[in-house]
Amino acid sequence: MYCALPLYHALVKAGKQVHLANLSFTALGMTGAREIHPTLFEVTRRTPAELRYFPEVYLSQFLHLQGFNSSVFAFEKRGYRQLQDGYQYLVDALNVDTVVLVDGGTDSLMRGDEDGLGTPEEDAISLAAVWDLENVKQKLLACIGFGIDAFHGVCHAHFLESVAALTRSGHSLGTFSLQVGSPEVDFYQQAVEFAHGHMRDRISIVNSSVLGGIRGDYGDQHYTERTQGSELMINPLMGLYWTFDLAGVAERNLYLDRLLTTESMTDVWTAIERFRNRLPEIRAWKSLPF
């Protein structure tokens, strides 16, 4: 969600009406957020912030302080049926004509037969849910943070292979970079720092890494104790948005149709594992020859 903030800022300043929604890791049913549809909650600056981990409420508070609409929508982690229904309700209620999924990382482009998929459950179920939305003119995917998913075992040669395939099929929409000192990056950094100030024991690995890459950090840099003991590769490419037509990404995914009957995230994980176990071959890790 926070990785979408540079885009959010630019679009709002361009006069667009923009809404933020997130597939949440927060136990939303234990918060004071208003449930507006089964598994879909609206978080505002007045929502009680009693849980140790609640990034949506701190984003709402930050948006209010900056003079923006402070409503942040959050989906509980459920299966395809609930998530797709919640997305469709939100699209219809807000009269949305464009949905942009933003992946903090690049594992959303993994097809399913690669050596490492990263953390595919949330990306895949979101991809499936948005792909099937009705009454939406544009469905897009943006990835930011090239190199972050090495922490989760993703082979970035396979990511670049996917980008090349999407380019050949006409579904890659190009890249653009975030620059230090731009209003979009300043807004993003301030929001992340605001949230970190309230959740000091849950510093975001993804957002800290992206901001580090943008400001020129390089190599095995660590911003939280959660990454100690692993080797990170902070690099200048982390500040690039890679953009795609969502349909092209969804069509390349080899297991997305297996998620359509899932009711929970456990079902999603099980469906992916069963698909992987039945593959005749897993494509081996391939180092980048740079």
Main attributes of the structure:
single chain; 290 residues; alpha/beta; 4-stranded mixed beta sheet; 9 helices; globular
Topology:
Blueprint: H1 5-13, E1 20-23, E2 34-37, E3 40-43, H2 55-65, E4 72-75, H3 80-94, E5 98-104, H4 120-131, E6 138-144, H5 156-168, E7 172-177, H6 183-198, H7 205-215, E8 240-245, H8 246-252, H9 265-277
Parallel strand pairs: 1-4, 5-6
Antiparallel strand pairs: 2-3, 3-4, 6-8, 7-8
Helix pairs in contact: 1-6, 2-6, 3-4, 4-8, 4-9
Note down, in words, how this protein is organized.
With 290 residues, the chain is α/β, with parallel strands linked by helices. It has one domain (2-203, 239-277). The protein contains nine helices and eight strands. The strands form two sheets. A four-stranded mixed β-sheet has the order 1-4-3-2. Helix 1 crosses helix 6 (183-198), helix 2 crosses helix 6 and helix 4 packs across helix 8 (246-252). The longest helix is centred in the middle third of the chain and has 16 residues, at 183-198. The mean pLDDT is 96.
